[in-house]
Amino acid sequence: METNTIDIRELNDRINQKSAFIDLLTMEMNKSIVGQKYMIERLLIGLLAQGHVLLEGVPGLAKTLAIKSLATAINGKFARIQFTPDLLPADIVGTMIYNQQQNQFQVKKGPIFANFILADEINRAPAKVQSALLEAMQEKQISLGDTTYKLEEPFLVLATQNPIEQEGTYPLPEAQVDRFMLKIIVGYPLIEEERMIIRQNINPEGQTKINPIIKPEDILEARNLVREVYMDEKIEKYILDIVFATRQPELYKLAKLKPLISYGASPRASINLALASKAYAFIKRRGYVIPEDVRAVCMDVMRHRVGLTYEAEAENMNSEMIVNEILNAVEVP
Predict the structure, then answer these.
(1) CA-to-CA distance for 65 and 51, rounded, in angstroms?
(2) pLDDT, tens digit, 9 for 90 and up, residues 93-114
(3) Domains plus CATH for the chain?
């Protein structure tokens, strides 16, 4: 037991030193983004835990700017794909082109071959285009013709969707939504923050350039450290209880939720909840996970993984209310 304590102490010191770049990265992003601390922190969790992020919010909340600023600060390759109803899968992954001089087909790689992919307004493209991202998101590879190409690490898909406009949009299939580690709801800024946004945008000197402060290799090193963050068996059980309560609520004295849930969270939810909790502990410069870390990231990991029945919709219940009920009912270690 003594050895274990020393190990955790040593790990804690190491992570405390190695996570110092988080503050630098946040400060650099804050040059162009006013407020939105929650969104920036969640983008960093996705980056450190190798998870893709879905951002939902009305237009003009700096979703695109935040993603672009993050890519610039890390000095990674950035590609923006504007999803439209006439987009084709080849526009994303690339295609085979016939070269007449060499008398053979050649691969023309699409914008997906970058470190940071901004899938802007992802719900504007039909299902076959959205599904072109699936292999890239899950396997970190792309198949073109009879060859499979590995994507460069770090590889991160950051997708945005507009919740208020329904005309000409296609809801994301459950299989794809489940591949996003986090779904972040981006809210409006506070009145003081909005005053600063106005000043920053009308004053030419107020617009500051983002500088690259770390390299993609530093992120890969940090990802390995995130996986080393200590997680006790009690925390593992807590994560499993939260996920299983969405599948069998009656076992957690939540029988009233049974008719409201059409399907519970997948095993990917358990994996992502554990990884996101470790990444959150890393951001807080700790070498071990505490229950508060799990609770802090739980809503973003779970809100898009709980299916609702018509009965839930009739009662004006949403997935966030159900997750909150579960968090209040499940015993905290």
Answers:
(1) 19
(2) 888 887 778 777 778 888 888 8
(3) 1-31+230-333 (1.10.8.80), 33-197 (3.40.50.300)
pLDDT band at 38 (very low <50, low <70, confident <90, very high): confident
User: DSSP label at 214?
Assistant: S
Residue 277: is its pLDDT beyond 90?
A: yes
Mean of pLDDT over the chain: 85
* Of residues 15, 44, 41, 22, the one with CA closest to residue 288: 15
For residue 169, the tally of other CB atoms under 10 A from its CB is 17
- The 3-state secondary structure of 299-312 reads HHHHCCCCEECHHH
Q: How far apart are CA 44 and CA 15, in angstroms?
A: 16
* pLDDT tens digits for range 190-238: 888 888 888 877 876 656 778 888 888 888 888 998 998 999 999 999 9
Nearest to 326 by CA among 235, 264, 267: 264
Distance, in Å, from the CA atom of 133 to the CA atom of 96, rounded to the nearest integer, reads: 18
pLDDT at 87 over 60: yes
Neighbours of 175 (CB within 10 A): 12
Residue 14, both tokens: 């190491």
Q: How far apart are CA 328 and CA 321, in angstroms?
A: 11
Q: How many CB atoms lie within 10 A of CB 145?
A: 11
pLDDT confidence of residue 165: 59
C-alpha to C-alpha distances, 70 to 104, 118, 156, 277, 328, nearest whole angstrom: 39, 11, 11, 21, 34
**pLDDT for 115 beyond 80:** yes
Both ends of the chain: CA-CA distance in Å?
Answer: 20
* HEC secondary structure over 22-67: HHHHHHHHCCCCCCCHHHHHHHHHHHHCCCEEEEECCCCCCHHHHH
Total-model pTM: 0.87
Does residue 154 have a cis peptide bond before it, meaning omega lies within 30 degrees of 0? yes
User: Taking phi first (over 0 means left), then psi (-120 to 50 degrees means alpha), and beta for anything else, what does residue 316 get?
Assistant: left
* Alpha-carbon span 322 to 302, nearest angstrom: 10
